[in-house]
Design goal:
alpha/beta, two-stranded antiparallel ribbon, 24% strand, 250 residues, Rossmann fold, seven-stranded mixed beta sheet
Length: 250
């Protein structure tokens, strides 16, 4: 059964890195070798998480470099660790076209809204949750997608619905509601991302194209199709359920 050598690229706190590392360490993620953390900000707390998890980390500075130079240095680092799957986890640099093409359908990203809503350039962190609440929608949640040239526009692999309703009526400040929603969605980010990584490692995501016609125009739509057939999802949920129960006991 498949498997992969995984790199996580992160720039900040690193909670999604931590969740992935914990899933690997607990054996929930199987045939996934977490080879390296790559970070681009010297103050990033994620490097401390990597050290505690005994995961090698590499600092690649973007200071004074154009996108091509920076991407090339990151690629060289990934090559040294034999990486064949990349998970962006709060990575604050836009990857160039050559980087994306080299790792076509091998770069994952997680976004804290149900894309395409509240996505695109400049939409990250609290800005996303603020936009969600200001829209008045009742359901949000994380999205895992493949990275493509257009920001947050790569094929969506999976999403996790998170209900908002009760937050609107709470007698707390608006900024506190944004914080509460961010914390709620983050919980499910940690669960969804590892599930999609396992799908990728098991070779259970297909890329398909479909022709779309509208108002006399025709174009091809690229779709990521996850395969949850057989007992795959049942077995994953059971492994994760036991993992979460142990986490809650700590």
């Amino acid at each position: 059964m498949g498997g992969c050598n995984l790199a996580v690229l992160a720039s900040g706190e690193g909670t999604n890195f931590q969740a992935i590392a914990d899933h690997v360490a607990a054996g929930v993620l199987r045939n996934v070798n977490l080879r390296v953390l790559v970070y681009n900000r010297p103050e990033a707390k994620v490097k401390d998480r990597a050290e505690k998890c005994q995961v090698p980390s590499e600092f690649v500075s973007h200071a004074g470099k154009d996108r091509g130079e920076f991407d090339e240095e990151v690629i060289d680092t990934l090559n040294r660790y034999g990486v064949d799957l990349i998970a962006l986890a709060g990575w604050d640099r836009i990857l160039g076209a050559e980087f994306i093409e080299k790792y076509r359908w091998k770069i994952l990203n997680i976004h804290p809204s149900l894309l395409p809503f509240a996505g695109g350039k400049g939409m990250y962190g609290r800005k996303v949750h603020k936009a969600v609440l200001e829209s008045g929608v009742k359901v949000t949640g994380p999205t895992v997608h493949y990275v493509d040239i257009a920001v947050d526009r790569g094929p969506i692999i999976d999403q996790y619905p998170v209900h908002i309703g009760d937050i609107y009526g709470l007698p707390i400040a608006w900024e506190d509601k944004i914080t509460l929603l961010a914390e709620r969605v983050l919980l499910y980010e940690h669960r969804l991302y590892s599930r999609v990584i396992q799908l990728q490692a098991d070779g259970r995501i297909k890329i398909e194209t479909e022709k779309v016609e509208r108002e006399g125009m025709t174009w091809e739509l690229t779709i990521a199709v996850p395969d949850y057939s057989g007992n795959w999802l049942k077995e994953w949920n059971e492994r994760q359920r036991k993992f979460l129960a142990l986490q809650n006991e700590k």
